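Weekly modeling sync, notes
Attendees: AB, CL, MP (scribe)

Item 1: holo prediction request
CL wants a bound-state model with calcium ion before deciding which constructs to order. AB pointed out that an apo prediction alone won't tell us much about the pocket. Agreed to run with the ligand included and paste results into these notes for async review.

Input as submitted:
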Amino acid sequence: MMRMKTAMINRTVANIGLIALLWLLCTLTIPGPLQAAIFFDSDFETCNVGTENDFPCQGWDDLIPPGQHNAEWSDEVNANTLEITNVGCFSGSKCIKETFRNNGLAGDGGNKPTIYKTVPRTDHMFFRGVIKRDASFRTCTLNNSTKMWRFRGEGIGGGYPILLMGVRSDRYVVAVEGPYDFAGTYVFTGGPLISTTWQNVELEWKWNTPGVSDGIIRLWVDGVLYIERLNLALRGPTLTSVGLSGKLDTSDYYFNSSQVYAQCGTGALYWDRLAVGDTRIGPAQSRLSSADSTPPARPTLNPIP
Ligand SMILES: [Ca+2]
Ligand SMILES: [Ca+2]
């Protein structure tokens, strides 16, 4: 009798346990494949204008290196500046203006204004910006190259490669400093001329599987694919890999910083709608209503592997 009762109690306990487990399973969101996402699409509409301290704004900060104050602006002769303007922007009424005054001359070392925003860790990244130059803009005469947009891991052990989008001889290029499989800097040419009318510039970056040469870099301008490099070993196979440049190219390295960088040139560049995601973002619409959260249409050209 006692044994039967114990068995019944045991069975009841087992049933309650099973029901509790089923209930728990039902209430849990079962994780599926991660959803593709646009992490941010900055329109700069909420930023201050003309204060000489327009940043930080919308998560873009100018405090690099730590302790340096107000790196976006300097009154020094020949110093470059970076600010929010409300003249001639792409979407809404505000955008970024970079003014180049040093062209590699004296003062260059002291002021390279930069703003940056943290980006989430992901192995397949897409970047989109809407960019134009003013009529007087020319690339830096020092090395015929103006760096524009940079991606790297800040404060992460390793530190290479670094991805750069810029212009060389006024044409868009993609450069990769210190990749695992190349001694020096890849410079991928073939991009179109930078224009005085707005251009949608998109970058794709796919980290290679450690130990496999399957990395991808692509550049689109206004939806047209201009640069495509496949089968790259951008990072090394192990946690201590050293690449052909002698730099640490560790297998767990990743980008966590998106940086706009006014280093060297003449004239001015304008930026709007800077977006980062792990899916192709596509060209921006020219007017962004604050009530409209519809993402831009995903282009069907050049399907992503
Ligand atoms: Ca804007
Ligand atoms: Ca500031």
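Recorded for review: Residues 43-45, 89, 91-92, 94-95, 272 surround calcium ion (ligand 1) (CB under 6 Å).
Action items: CL to compare against the apo run; MP to circulate these notes.
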